[in-house]
Write a structure and sequence with these properties.
This protein has 6 helices and 5 strands; from the N terminus they run βαβαβαβαβαα. The chain has 148 residues and is an alpha/beta fold. β4, α4 (91-99) and β5 form a beta-alpha-beta unit. The active site is at 67 (proton acceptor), 100 (proton donor).
């Protein structure tokens, strides 16, 4: 059985997270929602930590994170050892962040990306495998930067 996807959003990304939950339900993809659960004002670093901790622990296969722009939650997620988060608003980036960077967190902005495009980006992110090969060496170098 495939591990669930971790979801988290602050108040700026809440509505987009909810639309993605419906999309994941349609696709039959399991997820775990780490909040916010009601759209009340909250801080994106707290939301990123909860979902990313589940990815690092191996409880979830990746994270889909949402804030107003996608940038703040991306920056927060990337502070967590073991996370490779990418803020995307186009299909090419969403696909190639998986193919070449083995990203394990996709960050989207609720005030930047509409629900239709967000669903497309999520599908690309979830369905695209990491190519490995020459890219693996670069991933290892990138992750070694956490030690400095």
């Amino acid at each position: 059985m495939t591990k669930p996807v971790a979801l988290a959003a602050d108040h700026g990304g809440y509505e987009l997270k909810e639309s993605i939950k419906a999309h994941l339900d349609e696709r039959g993809i399991a997820y775990q929602d780490f909040g916010t659960l009601d759209g009340a004002s909250c801080d994106y670093p707290d939301m990123a930590k909860a979902a990313c901790d589940a990815v690092v622990a191996g409880d979830c296969r990746c994270a889909l994170l949402f804030c107003g722009t996608g940038v703040g939650i991306s920056m927060s997620a990337n502070k967590i050892d073991g996370i490779r988060a990418c803020c995307c608003s186009d299909a090419f980036s969403a696909e190639y962040t998986r193919r070449h960077n083995d990203a394990n967190a996709l960050c989207l902005g609720g005030r930047v990306v509409g629900p239709g495009l967000a669903a497309c980006l999520v599908d690309l992110f979830l369905d695209t495998p990491f190519e490995g090969g020459r890219h693996q060496r670069r991933i290892e170098k990138m992750m070694a930067l956490e030690q400095h």
